[in-house]
Amino acid sequence: MVILVSEETRLLVQGITGKEGSRHAYLMKKYGTKVVAGVTPGRGGQEVNGIPVYNSVQDAISNHPEINTTIIFVPARFASDAVYEAIVNGIKTIVVITEHIPVHDTIKFINFAQCKGSIIIGPNTPGVISPEIAKVGIMPGRYFKRGRIGLVSRSGTLTYEVSYSLAKHGYGVSTAVGIGGDPVTGLNFIEVLDMFEKDPETSAIVVIGEIGGTNEEELALEIRRGRYSKPIVAFIAGKTAPPGKRMGHAGAIITGTRGTYESKVKALKNAGVRIAEKIDDISSILDECL
Predict the structure, then answer these.
(1) Is 24 a catalytic residue?
(2) What predicted TM-score, i.e. pTM, was given to this entire model?
(3) Which candidate in 100, 104, 169, 249 is catalytic?
C-alpha cells in the first residue's frame, strides 16, 4: 500500500519555472512520478520538460482535476501564499521544500491545513519517496531500493545515507519520509509512524533523529504506551555536538537539558527502542528484529 506517495499520485509543481523547480520536475518525472502540471504566475501557457504551466493552482486543477499532491519550490517570502493556494483548492498532500519560512507563518498554514484536511510535509524537507514507484522531493532516487522498511527522518542527507546503507545490507524501503528540519513542521514522527503501523507493506521502522527539539522524546512516550507493534530502530545524530550547537537546521539546537543526544537516547531506550550507534549498525539490529 505504501504511504503518502504511490502509483495514484498526480503531482503539481508550484514554482516550476525556477531553477530548482524545473530541475526537480524533470527528475521526478524521469523517476516515474506522474507530474501533470506546474504553476508560476505570469508564465501560463508555457511548458517545462513537456509539463504544462499555469498561472494559478485553480487554473491547473481546472485543466487537471486528477491533481492530488503538490510540491512547493517557491521562495520563502512567497511560500506561505503558495501553501494556502494549494489548501483552498483542495489538494490533500502538500510537500514544502522551501526553507527559511518564518516559524509563525508555518504555524498558521499548518493549522489551516489541519482544519481543511490537508497534510503538510515540511517545510525544509527533502520530500517523500516510495522507491521504484514515485518520488515527490529532491532526494537522489538511486540511493533507494524497494523493500519493507519504513524510514522517517529529520535530516535529508542522513535519509539518503541510511537508505544506501540498508540497500548494501539487503534491505529496502517501503516509503522514506523527510519530515523537515525546521522547528515547526507539518507531519511529525508520531503521525508518520501511525501511517507505517497501518501499512501492510512495512515490516519494521527506522527513525532518524537529531539533537534539538523534542520530537524523539514525544515519540518515545507513545511507544512506551504501546502505540506500535512493529519493530523500531533509531539513529540519533549529534552525539558529539557541544551544547548550543546547531546541526545545520533551525530545529536542531539544544536548549537546556531537553533536546540533547543523551535525553533522546535515554527516552527511546526506556521505551524499548534499539539504538544504532553507527548507520551501518541499523541493518545488524534489523537482522535481529526480523
Answers:
(1) no
(2) 0.94
(3) 249
